[in-house]
Amino acid sequence: MRNPPRRRPVHRAVLTAAVLFLAGTLSGCLAAPVPPNTASPVAKATAAPAPAEAPPIFASNDEALAAATSFYSSYQAMANTISREGVNAD
Questions:
Q1: d(CA 84, CA 41)
Q2: Is the backbone of residue 67 left (phi > 0), alpha (psi -120 to 50) or beta?
Q3: Mean pLDDT across the stretch 7-31?
Q4: Per-residue pLDDT tens over the stretch 48-67
Q5: For the chain, what is the largest distance between any 2 Cα atoms, rounded to a whole number of angstroms?
């Protein structure tokens, strides 16, 4: 008569990891804690002061577009220089 095959024992580390994982997962299912004393006065929120309106930087949309186009072209030129020569080019 043959003996039944032996089952591999589950290691203690695997059981510990499974219990810790299960405890961590289920801890998110608990109800939110209730404040102990709700009769005490609570600070009231105040409205933030309205920010002062700053004057526009550019006088017109055309002036803003010209500045953005100029900056972008200088950015592209620098990016191309870095691509050709590298970052630490002398």
A1: 66
A2: alpha
A3: 80
A4: 787 888 888 999 999 999 99
A5: 99
Backbone angles phi, psi at 37, to 5 degrees: -130, 100
CA 66: distance to chain centroid? 35
**Residue 68 to residue 74: CA distance in whole angstroms:** 10
* Stated pTM of the model: 0.39
DSSP string, 17-45: HHHHHHHHHHHTTSPPPPPS--SS--PPP
Average pLDDT, the chain: 82
Cβ-proximal residues to 81 (8 Å cutoff; 6+ apart), any chain: 89
